[in-house]
Every structure is written in structure tokens, then in C-alpha cells.
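stage 2 :: seqdesign
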């Protein structure tokens, strides 16, 4: 069966179905490895330079995925493979082995109020960026922090020392109830 001329660009691919799948998976894995090597900082504190790299990265690898094929069908196959392979790796990433290989582990940057400057340097995070993150999470000083770690997903998670944590509504209601019971006992 021959395709009408208007339909040919949509359905006839210039490379095989299996080559399209293989190209997409190989490029996906290559970018995944690059991002893992680039580190958590790329995800955590993206600045304008990092944004330019991410935007250009998609353009750089585009031809590796599509090859000589510009068909709509080829693009749809590539998109389905990207989304499907990503979903498969997401499910693998929740296993201990998958988490170690694909996601990584947190990096502690503060322990018992002391900043690990060597860890910050390895991650490419300035003390000013760390201070800003601490302030956003309710700390005025690293000395108030029990632990802070950069998670593989790019977030810095801060655990405040017990006495330096902000009071919650429950804490205030409990204190008021205790005061009321002391007053009533007198």
C-alpha cells in the first residue's frame, strides 16, 4: 500500500522503529549520567548559567535522538519511549539498588551547628547560598541547626536543634493549657 503524498511525512520514518527506540534510550541514559556527574548542585541552586546549559542540552542531543528522521510518527515514538523509559526508571529508583545507582544519597553540609565547608566546596554551594536556604527554613544562624543535608533531588533539608525550633500552634496551646491549670490550682 502506498501512502498519499500528504500523509507520507507523518507516517514514513527514515530510520527503523528499533533504531529510534535505541537512540532515545541511549541519549536518555547519557544525559542521566551527565546530570549525576554534574551533581546535586545543578538541581539545587540553578543559576542563569545552569539554565542556559539545560536549555542548550536539549538542542544538542536532539539530532542524536531523531537521526535523519523528521516524521511525526518518529517524534511520537521518541516521546513515548522517553516517557515510558522514565516511568520504568522511576519505579526502579524506589528500590535500594535503584536509589543508589540513579538517585544517590544525601550530603550533609551542617552537623551540630558546624558547617562542613569541604562538602560545600565539593557541591559548588557558596556559604551565601547556604545562609539563604537556612533563613528560608527559619534559621538565623548555622549554630541553630542540628543537621542540614543536600538531598539527591536538589533540596537542602534542615533540622533545627530542639531549643531553636519555632513554636507551633500546638506548642502554644499546650503552654496556655499548662498556665491555665497552674492558675486554677492556686
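stage 2 :: out
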Amino acid at each position: 500500500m502506498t501512502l498519499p503524498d500528504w500523509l507520507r511525512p507523518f507516517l514514513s520514518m527514515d530510520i527503523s522503529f528499533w533504531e529510534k527506540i535505541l537512540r532515545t534510550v541511549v541519549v536518555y541514559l547519557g544525559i542521566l549520567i551527565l546530570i549525576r556527574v554534574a551533581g546535586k548542585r545543578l538541581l539545587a541552586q540553578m543559576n542563569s548559567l545552569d539554565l542556559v546549559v539545560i536549555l542548550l542540552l536539549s538542542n544538542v542531543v536532539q539530532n542524536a535522538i531523531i537521526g535523519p528522521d523528521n516524521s511525526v510518527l518518529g517524534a511520537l515514538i521518541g516521546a513515548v519511549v522517553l516517557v515510558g523509559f522514565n516511568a520504568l526508571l522511576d519505579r526502579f529508583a524506589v528500590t535500594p539498588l535503584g536509589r543508589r545507582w540513579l538517585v544517590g544519597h544525601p550530603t550533609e553540609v551542617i552537623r551540630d551547628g558546624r558547617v562542613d565547608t569541604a562538602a560545600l566546596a565539593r557541591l559548588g554551594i557558596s556559604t551565601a547560598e547556604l545562609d539563604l536556604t537556612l533563613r528560608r527554613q527559619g534559621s538565623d544562624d548555622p549554630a541553630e541547626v542540628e543537621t542540614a543535608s543536600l538531598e539527591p533531588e536538589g533540596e537542602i533539608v534542615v533540622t533545627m536543634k530542639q531549643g531553636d525550633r519555632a513554636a507551633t500552634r500546638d506548642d502554644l496551646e499546650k503552654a496556655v493549657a499548662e498556665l491555665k491549670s497552674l492558675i486554677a490550682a492556686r
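stage 3 :: structure notes
- The mean pLDDT is 85.
- The two ends are 97 Å apart (CA to CA).
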